[in-house]
Amino acid sequence: MSVILCTAGYDHTIRFWEALSGICSRTIQHPESQVNRLCITPDKKYLAAAGRHMVRLYDIKSSNPNPIMQFEGHTNNITGVAFHCEGKWMVTSSEDSTVRVWDTRSGQVQRNYQHTHPVNDVVIHPNQGELVSCDRGGNIRIWDLGESKCTHQLVPVEDVSMASVSVASDGSLLAAGNNLGDVYIWRMYQNHDSTTLLPCRVFKAHKDYLTRLLLSPDIRLLATCSADHTVRIWKIDMNEEHLEAIPEGPGSSNPDDPNHQSNGSPNQYVVNGNGTSNGTSTPSSISTPNPIVSGGFSAIANPDSRSQSSGSLTSTPISPASFRTLTELITQRRPLPCDTVLDNHQRWVWDCAFSADSAYLVTVCSDHYARLWELGTASIIRQYSGHHRGAVCVALNDYSNPP
Question: For residue 253, which of 182, 203, 318, 334 has the smallest C-alpha distance?
């Protein structure tokens, strides 16, 4: 299968599609819960479906409708899932306020990191040694797997739920979006012993909730999905060096969506929970990476640096000079150029996936449809019809060769 395209959502089914014809080639029932997120392993052999409390792993090439493995341990909805580049381990995020790393061979938990709020998303840094997660308290945390601790915490707007995070394929950028529709972009600079994060863009991408955000494989585009029924495509200029500032005060919008379920939704826009950071010893299947993040720029100062064994935050406070620079730039919000608006959706757009060449985008929507867009013309190439309720997650792998 050269192209693997899967969608899932509230109708408790996972559907495999022939991308070019739009035909549904296979349907897997997922009766225990709706599916919140999908992820295809880099070798294209397996599909992970994240639902309530567990992730199920399905054999893509088999006709077996049953999962070949289940990863159990979360106590609430699983909101994010991603695989190590060789499939040796998997990371998940959950509304139970944890981020967990799993051995894909044994199904056992190797890491268990605690947020203070339900976690909305998690991604793996291309260096395979760091995780980036975000939560409903407005926190973005970077976790060093080698040191088994949180090394950076970014809080653009406290108590405003951070909905989604994305890291550039070369590790140069970190992008995040929140429930106010604001997007934040940091440059990530790495050397042999540290990572520095510098804010380079802040802008309002949508007037309503941002549900998903994704940097394209070629790092030239940023896609943002929203409750305003649109997906916007933003151009990225990698030569841009200007620092931008935190945007003006929070706006307001209505969180109610008639098709949004409180039990098991991909993103429930609730802030609650508590906990402290926690780390464990390095598991055998996760190799210790080159020395990476240890302090650096943080959007919130936390001078309470505890021992590494606790896995808690050890950030470098912002200098007064840096704070003044940010304050002076507050009114200078400059958005990225908006290249395209994909506005044929009828309801909330929940998720998206770029093609390997960054020329196409697949979106899924509460109007039950998945759509394949050609970004150069902003036109729909295929519309995938078959879900009986909202489609909320999509996974696409069209790379010619496994990584």
Answer: 182
Quick: pLDDT tens for 19-31.
Answer: 999 999 999 999 8
Instruction: Calculate the alpha carbon distances from 322 to 175, 187, 200, 315 in Å.
Output: 20, 15, 13, 15
Mean pLDDT in residue range 250-254? 34
**Selection from 371, 395, 400 nearest residue 48 by Cα:** 395
In 10 A of CB 125, how many CB atoms? 23
CATH class of 4-397: mainly beta
Instruction: Count Cβ neighbours within 10 Å for each residue of 160-173 and write b for 16 or more, e otherwise.
Output: bbbbbbbbbeebbb
* Domain extents in the chain: 4-397
E-only strand ranges, 10-68: 13-17, 24-29, 37-40, 46-50, 52-59
Q: Within 13 Å of residue 267, how many CA atoms lie on the same side as its CB?
A: 31
Averaged pLDDT score across all residues of the chain: 80
Which amino acid, residue 42?
P
DSSP conformation class of 323: H
Q: What are phi and psi of 103, to 5 degrees?
A: -80, 120
* Closest C-alpha to 174, from 132, 210, 120, 223: 132
Question: In this structure, what token pair is assigned to residue 360?
Answer: 């196409």
pLDDT on residue 271 = 23
Residues 6+ apart with CB under 8 A from 52: 32, 33, 34, 36, 76, 77, 78, 263, 264
Q: Dihedral sign, CA of 324, 327, 331, 337?
A: positive
Q: What confidence tens digit (pLDDT) does each residue in 47-104 have? A: 999 999 999 999 999 999 999 999 999 999 999 999 999 999 999 999 999 999 999 9
Contacts of 51 (CB under 8 A, 6+ apart): 30, 32, 33, 34, 35, 36, 77, 78, 264
- As a whole number of angstroms, the distance between CA 58 and CA 316 comes to 43
Tell me the mean pLDDT in the region 315-329: 40
